[in-house]
Here is the input.
Amino acid sequence: MADHRHRGCCPPMDLFRSEPMQLVQLIFPLESSHLTVSYLGDLGLVQFKDLNVEKSPFQRTYANQIKKCGEMARRLRYFREQMSNAGITPPPKSLARNDIKVDDLEVKLAQLEAELTEMNANNQKLQRAYNELMEYKIVLQKAAEFFYSAQRIAEAQPRETESQHPEESLDTPLLLEQDKSVDPSKPVQLGFFTGLVPRDKSMAFERILFRATRGNVFVRQVAVENPVIDPASGEKVEKNVFVIFYSGERAKNKILKICEAFGANRYPFSEDIGKQAQMLKEVSGRLSELRTTIDAGLLHRGNLLQTIGDQFEQWNLLVRREKAIYHTLNMLSMDVSKKCLVAEGWCPVYATKEIQDALHRATVDSNSEVLYTRESPPTYFRTNKFTSAFQEIVDAYGIAKYQEANPTVYTIMTFPFLFAVMFGDWGHGLCLLLSTLVLIFREKKLSSQKLGDIMEMMFGGRYVILMMSLFSIYTGLIYNEFFSVPFHLFGKSAYECRDLSCKDATTYGLIKVRDAYPFGVDPVWHGSRSELPFLNSLKMKMSILIGVAQMNLGIILSFFNAMFQFIPQIIFLNSLFGYLSLLVIVKWCTGSKADLYHLMIYMFLSPTDELGENQLFPGQKLTQQILLLLALVSVPWMLLPKPFILKVQHQNRHHGQSYEPLPAEESLLGEANHDSHGGHEEFEFSEVLVHQLIHTIEFVLGAVSNTASYLRLWALSLAHSELSSVFYDKVLILAWGYHNVIILIVGIIVFVCATVGVLLVMETLSAFLHALRLHWVEFQNKFYLGDGYKFHPFSFALAGEEDDL
Here is the structure.
């Protein structure tokens, strides 16, 4: 059972520990169950447990109601699709309150769906007829032109032709009055088809006709200038008008089948010019009538969809709420004899009064009591818009166990600081700050818009980027770098040239004429021959100090979870690497030339040898021997006590049912494992001992590897500085040296693109990922288990779209 201290109605946010949770049992009458769950959903502070796990979804009490809600949700999705196709956007909120009941809404949605479906079917029929008439009109126009042209050529052709070798061409009249080679008593009867065929199939269409009839057809095609709407598909298609002349019934049947296979639409056509004009007039009149009918139908359909759209969001919200309520009611246990429902769920301790108020509002017969359980509660941290992004960074590694120390409290400061150590440039920091301020000042507008994936991540982490930019400005001032250029912001340099010969950028020949530069790196180091060795030494040692400090913080936090791990681990780490950090600070203060690498290596290999010139302070040899002995003793200390302590606790622990009183606090948080129903697991001493052995070896080896891993701070900081310097010297300064305006403009463009693309995007992402790794691996593995589960209360505010219900 969690802590029950009174924390008031609105307790302050506490990120270090998750909120104290309690398992509650709610009993309310069947008649008021719907209203009770609705009030609790509005409250959003109860995570219900499923008390009907053994039942399938179809065996539960409210399966039919959920099915009805699903059907209403389907109709609403259908309405949304129809409104989207019609270009109608439902308003997000309506001022008019919708008090319609669910049963009435179900009937109304069914009626609207039937009406809309009938309208769509009629409109499709009318539109298909309209498209067919449009194609028919095009065929009448194009085919009439063809027949008129053929007739004109035939009239102009001389009636006498050569009897032996007549000249054949496409301009020869198609129908001669009499074929000289055929018996005049048996005239040739030619038939023809007219229609449209898709242009992309026209060549294949003509080729198949030729092969199928063995060349006994004449095909003429004319392209239609504009795409026409196909009656079958309703899509715009480029088509050709065709005229096919054939002879014989067999050829006719083959042509009909080929037209059907190629999707060619055939339309009747008369050779008589008078009938052609009459048919064209009739088609145009029918088209006008259909257009008027279709427009009237679309207007009526649009009015209906607009009426639906005005109330769509209210209906959608009501259906989603109803479905969520019945899903929750299906998780409750029904007591048939008492005609009431019994619910169990987790809630924060501070929310007890609010839950009871919600129950009393629903029914005076409801009652709430706290249950005692051995089951591990869910983890709940109350965050705000500033801390939520940092909490998500930690949750991505793993959800904290109940009441486990939360790394987010320290990540808020350490994460942006480690990023800034690698990204230290106050010019680049200012660019990040300005871009982040735009997101912060427009957060109300952007939060209501649908953003892209990358923009959504940037907007969600806007306060993380804000902290990163502020710390980058701070570390940039320490490094004294503004786009790699140093500035005398805090006074004059402590060094000056002894004579003009020292202007070759070397520290040799510089003399100290005043006190040390008050803040950060002296600008005289930048551009000197000693810049790289000096900054290398500074940043490398600084990385070690920062890494040891953060790992010590992680071990100190492990005290709040398991005190027997805390003491030997902090002794081991500080006996070796804490001592190294001390030597670094002493060397800085004394100006000694001692070789720290040699000193640390021979501390292990030859602990009794004299230190010689590597001695930094009196009694150093004895100190190293004592620290080495403490490091050796701390290893079995980490290994042996914990398994025996857990064994004694297991033997003394009271064994009982799933629900029983527990001590207010346990000495080792999270070490006792229970199943989801609070059942007892058999204790295996050998498994615990092997697990602790692995953990001990991992910590000892990890102390070395983790310390070395913090050297990435030095490496990335140096890489960022050198890249910035290269872009400045080899692009901007080089372009300036040509004394040409065009080259200077090109140089500025290249410099800006390189700075934004490489330093402000790629380097930012690189430094972010490395800072993330340092927190997840080097810092959090010292104390953070992260094997809990998150608190997911039943809440209408957190409900997803209706498609997810």
Notes: The two ends are 33 Å apart (CA to CA). The first helix runs from residue 33 to 43. Residues 354 and 523 are 61 Å apart (CA to CA).
